[in-house]
Design a protein that fits this description.
- It is built from 8 helices and 10 strands.
- It has 218 residues and is of the alpha/beta class.
- It has a 5-stranded mixed beta sheet with strand order 3-2-1-9-10. The protein has a 5-stranded mixed beta sheet with strand order 4-5-6-8-7.
- Strand 5, helix 7 and strand 6 form a beta-alpha-beta unit.
- The longest helix is centred in the first third of the chain and has 13 residues.
- 40% of the residues are buried.
Amino acid sequence: MKVALFADIHGNFPALQAVWSHARRLGAEDFWNLGDSVGYGPFSSEVLAFLQKEYILSLRGNYDTKVLRLPEKGERWLGTKRPEKALAFRTCWESLSGEDRKYLETLPEVLRLRYGGKFFFLCHGSPESPGEHLDCSTSEERLKELGEVTGARYILCGHSHLPFDRTAGSVRFINPGSVGRPDDGDPRASYCLLEVQKDAVQTSFYRVGYDVDQVLYG
């Protein structure tokens, strides 16, 4: 059983299409999206339409939630952010239809799944907060604390835009990196293919090229 695991699309539809096609060629049967589907990139509405059309299991990330809360936060909230970030939030909100916002609102922040006989906990940032940043520098002690919260053997997380596969105690943390906005200096879309076997879960990380100019210039 193969699952394409990805996160942090951030409105980059061409990158999502490239990941989808690549994973399908490798035999992915299911697709799990760990959130932050909108924002920054110019194709947030197209991304949400694709997630629904293909019945992709998806979470709502911290950025997704912030975009939805823009009307109630208003100018006072945006005034605390850098001008480019404030503009990104406003532009994203205005680009979404009412149906887009309703769909985004329905997405859960965490999911517990039994798949292939194994228990997975899916979150955007960490099991305790969608805004907690986990990466290779996160202490083993902190990962063990988070592992105890869920009772799961596998914790799948995004948010940091940095791919990793770490084990702390008896719990394995897997982050696929970012589809649309990687933070490791490599502009190619990042995702992870999980191969769920009877006795193990194998991970393969991939970087997929796409037409960046399409995102920059439409």
